[in-house]
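Notebook entry, structure prediction.
Reason for the run: the old model in the group folder had no record of what sequence produced it. Starting over properly, with the input documented here first.
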Amino acid sequence: MKKKLRQGFTTGTCAAIAAKAAIRILLGETIEKEWVMTPKGVRIETDVLAIEKKGKTVTCAVRKDAGDDPDVTDGILIYASVVLTQDKKITVQGGEGVGVVTKAGLSQKIGESAINPVPLQMITKEVKEVLDKRGNFSGCKVTIFVPEGVEIAKKTFNPRLGIVGGISILGTTGIVEPMSEKALLESIAVSLNVAKANIGDTIVLTPGNYGEDFIRDTLQIALSNAVKCSNFIGETIDMAVEKGFQNILLVGHIGKLVKLAAGIMNTHSHVADGRMEIFVAHAALCGVPKERLIQIMDCVTTDEVIRILLETNYLECTMDSIMKKVQFHLEQRCLEVRKIGAILFSNPYGILGMTPQAKEIVQQLQASALK
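New structure, fully documented this time:
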């Protein structure tokens, strides 16, 4: 029986708990634990750490718990400092280790701290409720800071999104769902928003790091034009169309993107494989002898397939046939765009297939870079 993965809570929930604890201590209470109700309706209670009173300011910290999700922020301390003000307003700002937005397309304006709307609402709500309950008519300034944030941010998408100097304070439900597909798609959507706001109507999509390296080093296209889509090819195309991109280029290793020739738009091996079956079908159309088709079907890697097709002089014909079907299925997925195309490559053999529209998009991006 598969073990149920343990949920965690977001940096936004940590910040809200820390801020609530700090304002209560500032108003004279003594606490060791604090809780909030997340937007998902889950009550989160945890220890309050690193309590410090300095003048009229109180600072507290909460340790991030990502549950069973492999989150780079797991275990770090999220701090909140609070001080009462006379203007009766509650303001929330980012401090050390909380990123600053430098590109359009995010929820925050350029120059603002990367504290997302839901965490901002949670922090404000918790602080206001404490003040109202105590009948305190002062305002409050809350500063969220993360001493480890600068270093941790280097392991996140923040530099690509134009968020500099730290991590983002995130969360829409307040809860971390382990290995959540929804969370991955939300991250892709944010990347697409930033790209749309900053680079116009042409986007390059790639499943992962191999694709990024190829885009930068071989195609000579800036990675600011690219968004990583993991295995979610179809969903990312749908989102790109919805956001108004008119030219979409897919660049990826043949081991993943050859699946597009069969209309497979989620390339995770648990969803579908079929790589060898696709190669065999198209190689057979090109006249590859049966004994070679059997060898291809027994291959473990796509590089082995390419080697066999090269030895038999059928690589060009087979890849031409595959790329026609790739183009067909991409066009069927999104009829609304001007151009959509794909480039398939392997590390040993370089470019193996390029649709006509892909070539046009590459030339367009390369030309734009020279301006």
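Summary: The chain has two domains: 8-176, 181-370.
The old model has been moved to the deprecated folder.
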